[in-house]
Please model this.
Amino acid sequence: MGQQLLGNFNAFKDPNAPQYITTKSLKAMAGRPLTGNAASDQNIRLARELARRPELVKAMDRNSITGGLDGLIDRQKIGMIIQSDNPYKYLDDQQLAGEMLKKFDGLQDAHAPGHIKIERLKTLAGWPLTGNPAWDGLIHVAREVSKRSDLLRKMDNLASQDSDGWIRKQALRLLSH
Model:
């Protein structure tokens, strides 16, 4: 679907933001009646299918620096989603915090139980995949969290001193509910 959207990018562009497809322009396309024109109908059907997959739209909408949703989808964001093999790319922040909580034992600092050091998380995000599912799961979650600076900041500041460089288990519990 991402490849189709990228291939027909111009048909979905928002006239008020011509460099982007917006979530608003996708909804508008999905709300159109079928026309009998094969190309137009294909775009309408694609928009309707995307409306049934909000996690995919959110993944394409996610700001590549902050991880926030800005309603603007450009060609680069679509390309990044198509090329990414990270299984966590479709998760929202709440779900991602839940995944970190599930993997907490593998992420926590050996010298500070109950805490994840952000520096270690970023280091782990830079590791190549190993082929070991347990390690690769940790690497993938670290990569996705590290891409979302807004979420990482929340994790760092919730249930602890602001900007101390640590994520506490309690913060993940709060964010995942």
Notes: The chain has two domains: 2-83, 93-175. DSSP finds twelve helices and four strands in the chain. Strands lie at 21-22, 72-73, 115-117, 166-168. The CA atoms of residues 109 and 162 lie 19 Å apart.
